[in-house]
Amino acid sequence: MKSFMIGLGLGVGLGILFAPMSGEETRNNLADRANDLANSARESYEQGRDRVQRGVESIRGTAERAMSSVRGTAQDVASRAGDYSSPSSQAM
Per-residue pLDDT tens for 49-76? Predict the structure, then answer.
């Protein structure tokens, strides 16, 4: 990504030097390109943020399901332990 940005900067710089446009046209062109680049960066950021949010939600759902399963297993074990420690099973 760093190499791409360096290449982009060099390309823009060389384009300005050899551009057959007036100063005003060049400034407008640069402003348009800068806006396009800013919009592209903003979209990339938003896509990355959305991807991270989906990942966090997925992990949270998996963790909640795992905790529910552990709680259910713990309750089963506790109820079975209670069955083994009842007075009727100890009398035998």
Answer: 999 999 999 999 999 999 999 999 988 8
Q: How far apart are CA 79 and CA 73, in angstroms?
A: 10
- Token pair listed for 3: 């190499």
For helices 2-18 and 23-84, what crossing angle results, to 10°?
170
d(CA 63, CA 32): 46
Residue 22 DSSP one-character state: -
pTM over 0.70: no
**3-class secondary structure, 92:** coil
Residue found by looking up tokens 């991270």 in the block: 52
